[in-house]
Amino acid sequence: MQQFIRQLAQENDFQATRLLKILRAIQARYFYIPKAAIEQLALMLNISRTQIQNVIEFYSFFHLEPRGQFDILISNSITDLMVGQAELINYFAEKLGVKIGEVRADGVVSLNNTSCTGMCDQSLAGLVNGYAITHLTKSRIDEIVENVNKQLPLDQWSRDFFKVEDNIIKSGLLLNETPIKGAAIKATFARGLMETLTEVEKSGLRGRGGAGYTTAWKWKYCREENADQRYIICNADEGEPGTFKDRVILNAYADSVFEGMTVAAAIIGATQGFIYLRGEYLHLYEKLEAILVERRAANLLGKNILQNGFDFDIEICLGAGAYICGEESALIESLEGKAGIPRNRPPYPVISGYLNKPTSVNNVETFLAAANIAIHGGEWFAAFGTAKSKGTKIHSISGDCAKPGIYEYPFGVTVQTILDDCGATDVLGVQIGGPSGTFISNDEFQRKIAFEDLATGGSFIVFNNSRNILDIVHNFSHFFAHESCGFCTPCRVGTSLLKKQIDKIVEGHGSAGDIVALEELCQLIKNYSHCGLGQTAANPVLTTLERYPEIYQSMLKKISYEPGFDLDKSLETARRLANRDDAAAHLAQVEE
Amino acid sequence: MTNKKVKVATVSLAGCFGCHMSFLDLDERLVDLVEHIQFDRSPLTDIEHCSSDCDIGLIEGGVCNSENVHTLREFRKNCKILVAVGACAINGGLPAMRNHISLEDCLNESYVDGIGVENAQIPSDVELPLLLDKVHPIHEVVKIDYFLPGCPPSADVFWKFLTDLLAGVEPSLPYELVHFD
Question: What's the ipTM?
Answer without folding.
Answer: 0.90
